[in-house]
Design brief:
Layout: E1 9-13, H1 18-29, E2 33-38, H2 41-54, E3 60-64, H3 70-84, E4 89-92, H4 108-136, E5 139-144, H5 157-177, E6 182-189, H6 195-205, H7 209-216, H8 228-239, E7 250-253
Parallel strand pairs: 1-2, 1-4, 2-3, 4-5, 5-6, 6-7
Length: 261
């Protein structure tokens, strides 16, 4: 078994499902001590159960928090340091899609809600984790952006604006903090079959969402959805010391679709 994370402390937000859950399971298999954050405590318990089945001795801290609230973010960072003494790697992942609509019809409150989670939440996480890592003089942060953060996707003003913001934060902060031994990068997932993507397909296709999904990926060069575990493998690599010289970069994982004319 690869033990890239032996004695390493990995903090993950949005760990209760999807990409956060898959990444938590992967780094746990590689020896990580885990601080897992999610808005829903029952989702966290599901993740804990999955990890215990694979790694019975895993050292875990479960924290219920709303990443859109600065005080909750400071709290989850403080609790992680209190238990483990440090934070080696941070998957700054929690996010939502929000409703789909044309920009002129996109609700102002909905825009604030999506940006509050996806952009403010990522900024708050970086702000407080970077304070810890700067004192340590090392650390790695992986932010969850999206293909919606590197190109337009349509009908998703809040999501696209927030994820483009995550890309900007990643590049800017990577340039700032490389001198302190900290690398900061982002992933840009495309159509990965997570609960969030399933909910998006149901917005588009209703009861026929599975047919909508087949049509959605028909233009992908690989003609399929990605799997959460495929993203988990990438995140684990990027969080590890093996990827320490990858900095201020945004790595797509979308089957090549974002490069297609």
């Amino acid at each position: 078994m690869n033990n890239r994370f032996d004695e390493k402390v990995v903090l993950i937000t949005g760990a209760g499902s999807g990409l956060g859950q898959a990444s938590a399971l992967q780094v746990a298999k590689e020896g990580a001590k885990l601080a897992l954050v999610d808005l829903k405590s029952d989702f966290l318990e599901t993740t804990e159960k999955l990890i215990r089945e694979a790694v019975p001795s895993a050292d875990m801290l479960l924290i219920t928090a709303d990443v859109a609230k600065e005080e909750d973010v400071k709290k989850y960072v403080d609790q992680t340091v209190e238990k483990f003494g440090r934070i080696d790697s941070f998957f700054n992942n929690a996010g939502i899609e929000g409703k789909q609509d044309l920009t002129e019809d996109y609700g102002i409150d909905e825009f604030r809600r999506v940006v509050g989670v996806n952009l403010n939440g990522v900024f708050f996480g970086m702000k407080y984790v970077l304070e810890v890592m700067k004192k340590q003089k090392d650390g790695t942060i992986v932010n969850s952006a999206s293909v919606g953060g590197i190109r337009g996707v349509g009908n998703q003003s809040g999501y696209a604006a927030s994820k483009h913001g995550v890309v900007g934060l990643t590049r800017n902060s990577g340039i700032e903090y490389g001198q302190y031994g900290i690398s900061i990068k982002a992933i840009a997932p495309g159509a990965i079959m997570t609960p969030m993507v399933e909910a998006s397909l149901k917005q588009m296709g209703g009861e026929n969402w599975e047919a909508a999904g087949k049509e959605f990926v028909s233009v992908n060069p690989m003609k399929r959805f990605g799997k959460p575990e495929e993203v988990g493998y990438l995140v684990a690599f990027l969080l590890s010391e093996q990827a320490s010289f990858i900095n201020a970069a945004v790595i797509p994982i979308d089957g090549g679709q974002s490069y297609k004319y």
